[in-house]
Amino acid sequence: MNALMAPFGGWNMPIQYAGIIAEHNWCRTKAALFDICHMGEFIFQGDFESGGLEDVFTFSVKSIPLGRSRYGFLLNEQGGIIDDLIVFRIAGDKVMIVVNAATAPKDFAVIRGRLRGGLFTDITAATGKLDLQGPLSRDVMVKLFGEAVAAIPYFKFITMNILGVEAIISRTGYTGELGYEIFIPAEKVCELWDLLLSDERVKPAGLGARDVLRLEVGYSLYGSDIDEETTPLEAGLEGFVNFDKTFVGKEALLRVKEQGVTRQKVAFEVAGRRSPRHHYDICSAEEIVGNVTSGVFSPVLGRGIGIGFVRPELSAIGTPLTINHERVSMEAVVCDLPFFKDGSVRA
User: Fold this and answer.
1) Is 4-37+125-216 a CATH 3.30.1360.120 domain?
2) What is the pTM of this model?
3) If we measure between CA atoms, which residue out of 179, 180, 148, 150 comes closest to residue 161?
4) Cys bridge to 136: 24, 31, 48, 197, which one at CB 3.0-4.6 A?
5) Closest alpha carbon to 276 in 303, 310, 299
6) What is the average per-residue pLDDT within 115-138?
């Protein structure tokens, strides 16, 4: 399909097809199809508590209702984020864990090392994953797969027969728009791709548009905005940490809460159309006070936007900053998230 390809997380991935802005706009107004087969999928089956899975993540697995999913973190002993992930409660004793591509092998090894029992398997190679995202995605899915799709609430999923095989359709995504993630046996994923693209309301989109879309709604990108050196507290993601349960890294996070963070994630808008970039310096009064972790030109806002880390005293909304890199200098101001507030994600 004339995609521009590039390495990503050990995979060869489409960066763009028709163009990043065109694909972004199509997702915000119609329905865009993303190839997300690079993501990792694991299955745990057994007793969550006696098997040790309940203590692995920053959230409770046993309290996830059947047919629902939950977002959170796998942490190291220092409270740093090994990965951010989503767990899907498939049965009373069975969950699917969906992780990022680049961290999948390490995630599997870490989780397996913390388990005391149960059956833990890596189904990544056998699993295909496509995301259909955009305000028209529900209409497309209902036309192809029936009215049952229309009733799926946000962060809930159903299992149904697609193309003669069992598939999971989940009301989740990474764009801030109404959308679905479809997990299907790998041997059927190309057929599903063609079927979805047979609808004229659907066009393919690559990683470039996906990055702009997710940043406009303030979603973190692993390896840029969060990593093993960053805690959920620094990243402004404490809401996905349940301190009422046991998990690896809890003691370290409690110490950080008591002492206070030394750096804080901020969102900022640039005065102009220029894009801040990863690793650009964030300055205040000509002093370097942090660095940009994500930055793009936002087609919706018509200006540059970004995320980075600064000293806590510079994190207040309205704080003026300067983004510098070599001979590039951009005036910016700290703002709240999301940048784009009118998405259809909960429609």
Assistant:
1) yes
2) 0.97
3) 148
4) 31
5) 303
6) 98
